[in-house]
Fold this protein.
Amino acid sequence: MSRRDFLILSSIGITGALMPLDALGSQIFYRPDLHVSKWNREVRVIDPPPSGLLKDPLEIPNLSAKAGIVDVMLDVKKAPVDINGKRVNLLTYSGAFPAKTIRIKQGDRLKVTLKNSLPPTDEKTILGYTKNITNLHVHGWSVSPSGNSDNVFVAVNPGKEFVYEYDTSKQEAGTFGFYHPHYHGLVAEQIWSGLAGGALIVEDNVKILSDFETHILVLKDFNFIGSEPASYTEQDYLDGKEGDMVLINSQINPVLNVRPGQVQRWRFVNEGPARYYKLSLEGHKLYVIGTDGGLLDRPYPVSELLLSPGERVDLLMTADNTSGTYKLLSLPYNRQGNELQKVTLMTIVYKGESAKDKIPSVINPDAKRLAIDINTLPRRKLYLIMANGRSFINLKDFNEDPHVITSKVGTYEVWEIINISPMDHPFHQHINAAQVLSIKGGDAAYAEFYSSIPAWKDTINVPFQGVVTMLVPVMNFTGKTLYHCHILEHEETGMMGVWEIV
């Protein structure tokens, strides 16, 4: 063990650690006082009054007249935006917040012209990165990581354009992703400042779902100083930056009308840098029909569901209670770097003539858990570490010496994500979604749910002092991509590695 590695391990309470990191197994050592804020553990209630009827994000127009081709323009620029009657200045895609939805059919070719209209600047972030450079990542899509596809190593400088092209022939129907910037060093600040992106929808072919009223629900939080998003501090890069203005589709506690007996489809995406949501609807069950990578075999009833940064969930709700008004809540969740809050996200009002909708019994019968003997597969261990204001994977800081995984295309691997840091980390791997085998620690309902259903996950929460084990198919594409914590501040400070697929 190098002196550098010894000092890092010693700083998080592992003394006499002259052993290889793998020899630690899944033991957990941590000193929260070195890393994160001492939050008051009392729950703060954020219960704003309803603000008006819910408005869904607009869909971006297709510039192509050719079948099978979707051609869109995204113009990165600062623009005034109205949030709950307050005029603020945000980074936007083409002046819209939330950004517009891109919708395709399975097998379409998507062409995105990304124009960077931000001005050149010498201004730097507090981490030392020059501002206003950007690029694009299609979060959740299984496409090539190379060339002008999902290549997150591209830099689009101010005043320049870059044309991305994506072949979605390997993409599952029903996939629900989102697009956002991924230029290292600027991701957190750009997303916090409004460039959080829009939904990426690969249409499903399930007829019964098309009969249900559907809403795209973009979760994002802010704090503002005057009309500008609050600036970053060093502490934000330790805790992860959260705001007290919690929005759905740029609205504070919007109102959604439902007819008694009606079934609606709600598709949530958590686009914030660090805030977790524990979704719960007063007096109602929610039925999970899809996750990050597509539709499930059937609806799964839940009373609450955790949604960490970068995760998506596809739900059905049925208005089967007494007519009245109900709150969609985010219940308190202790990720160990945040204030405990109970937040009213949306108000549901029973209104109109009764419907006779039913929750379907089958959604996607082809969705199955993989039946593979994992004992014969290569096994990797990835340790998530925080020390001295920095973040690491296997003692490697991405900014200095990234941890590199090399995998062979067409194979399967087992990854153990072992969290020896003082807080939760949502782990995101690009290009290939995985199936969760087990989760030790953290929210028990979340662990049991994702360890048992036939879900494809590209983002999964790894609880502090916990371990996530997942089966990773390495399929279809070669090239270099990334895996990282999706608390974006931790990604920026080093908790990211390189994944080379050969």
User: Anything to note?
Assistant: Residues 3-38+368-501 form a domain with the Immunoglobulin-like fold (CATH 2.60.40.420). Residues 15-19, 23-35 have pLDDT under 50 and may be disordered.
